[in-house]
Amino acid sequence: MKKFKELNYKQLKHFCDPKKLKFKTTSDFEPEYESIGQDRAIVALKFGLRMKVKGYNIYMSGPSGTGKTNYAAKYIRKIASEQEAPDDWCYVYNFKNPNQPTALNLKAGMGTIFQKDMEDLIKVIQVELPKAFDSEDYEREESEIIREFQDRRVELLEELDEQAEKLGFRVKNTNTGIYFLPVVDGKVINDQDFNELDEHIRHEINVKSDSIQLETMDMVRRLKEVEREVEEKLSQWQNKVAIFALGIHIDDLKSKYSDYPKIQKFLDDIQEDILKNLDGFIGPDESDEQASPLLPLILKKEENPYDKYKINLVVDNSGLIGAPVIINFNPTYYNLMGKFEYENEFGTVSTDFSMIKAGLFHQANGGYLILQAKDLLMNVQAWEALKRVLKTRQITIENMKEQMGLIAMSALKPDPIPIDIKVILVGNSDLYQVLLDFDDDFSKLFKIKADFNSEMDITDLNIQKLCQFISSFCQREKALPLSKGAVANLIEYSSRLVEDQRKMTTKYNDLVELLAESSTWAEIEGASIVSEEHIKKAIKEKVFRSNKYDQMLLELMEEGTIMIDTEGKVVGQINGLSVLDMGDFVFGKPSRITANTYLGKSGIVNIEREVEMSGTTHTKGVLILSAYIGEKFAQDVPLALTASICFEQLYSGIEGDSASSTELFAILSSLSGLPVNQGIAVTGSVNQKGEIQPIGGATHKIEGFFELCKSRGLTGSQGIILPHQNIINLNLSDEVIQAVKDGKFHIYPIKTIDEGIEILTEVPAGVKKDDGTYPKGTVNYLVSSKLRKYAITVIKFGDTGVEKREKVTAKKECKCEEPNDTGIEDDEE
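Structure (tokenized):
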């Protein structure tokens, strides 16, 4: 038996020698979390954060679990701490247009001070105004003004009396008006007496009455002027008193906030409003025993005159050191943009400037906002809101339902707040591509892509950083430290996860799971450190929790329900290998592939494709087989072949071309009549030239077939054929490695179909000679001979039949006799 090239056990995984690790436990390292092996992404992130031009926001792309969010938060917080804290923002009442609250910004920390100052001013107003108007000086001056008015009123009325008396009338002044009663012979007459007077006298009285009415109108006008003059004097006096009582306090505030023009105007508006509405403030003093203590509760919110002077501090950066860094995992529209809260009163909702609440954009203004792209896109209108803010560079708080035209709930239109922000979206590569393809704004707003890798090179530096990460995790979670043997095993496991002996994973979630579980197993055993055995235990238990379906399939194969041979030889039958991904667990299992070949012109028939169970990639792989056979065996004769290939007992779809070489081996076996060793399973893709191409999941496929062979008993002749390029991807279990080391299991790397068919049949493939033929007894000779036989048969049988049919048809049409020159009798046809 020819000795075929096979892999040494040392080639089957990345071996990490604990002796080369220069530490005792991971507690020897300073705890530090750093994103390892992400140089490209880190450079892009740092550059994007330094760019201040519009549109240079950042999309952090990469697989889940690579630490994108944690690294971004840590690094951004570091640079943000070196920046100045942004301004505080507040909303105040707009006295000119109450439905458009005014936005004010102050230096960080000044917002709370301003809010407190305005609360103090309100207290001053509540105390000082009533006190000022309750003073003796105010009452004395008010009494003097009122007395002056009364004196002038009396003078005017006396003057009116004199005029009336001259004309023969007496004045009667009542609450309802001024009346003139005629006097005849020194006696006031009533209506009845007036009607009994002589007509001439009545006429004279009426004429005089019209004259006195004119005098009265002029007198009333003069009285009104006096009233207005008095009211103006009273108002001026009240304003003077109010300004005297409050002016010094407002002036102090204006001096304190002299650098803020909007605050200056706001304070002027407050003073003007107080003077306009003094009656609302000059009520009973709070200390007055007769004043109702329930008055503030009885007043409706909008009727409280002091509410207009309060400050709604929506962004308070007083406790912030540096620029804000906001991370959020629930970016709804209202969480992003802010909202109006509503007060329900007797079934009617209302709101005002004091019920405006800040959103994430307000909180992150002047700093950085980190969001998950998927979460953002899952929330209605959130993505559009983000784009609108980044385009306009301002935050406009609106009711979403009103914005969508569904319902108008609020008439408030607060001032938009200008924004200076850097948005960092965290997501995977697929989502990045979708946004790039289907949203024109995305590439304009997110010009920086920080692409995180799922793997990194195994180097001394990266191992050291990994140990620092482990130390950081152990300290943070109070887990046990790892011995160097455990670290070596963790590195090997990390290399297995990425299926590359040169690299290890950067998906820290997977490593954290193993660290936590191995620490728990160590604690259960009462150990003080995590050893290599604890790592192995954690891996084994993790597999056990998820491999139910793997074991179920293995049982079906062992009992023969799923027919898989692991011994003997069969023509046209071979074991292929496939990978099943259950989400939390990936495993490999063999599948029986059969091929039947016979004379015909249909080529290779893929049964899975015919019943629409074959994916496009698998179909492509099958079509390549026809091209290979045609190129190799049909150069001088036509290809007259029909070959059917089938994945037996497959009742679901199949995708991928990793079984294309396996299918070709089955066809070659059927054509040559040479049986295939059923103890050897095959995986690998093939191209039209017969070159073997690499595939994925090599480790799981090998372990899946090994598990079945082991359960039936290893014979020493079982093994796997795989593409030579996949050697670097192998990270096999210790059990498989030991079996290979003991010669009980074999792994054969191949480069061509010829190499593989020799291993499977133990017959030389055969190299084409100069005359285009193959050496007798070789696989290719037997295949070529069979295909040549098919071609000759088709030519001989097909041409004769065609010629005979043509002549019979012509005879029927012409109704004439033709000699039978085909050499084949009619009944033979």
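The chain has four domains: 16-33+455-546, 80-86+320-451, 130-281, 561-785. Residues 285-302, 800-829 have pLDDT under 50 and may be disordered.
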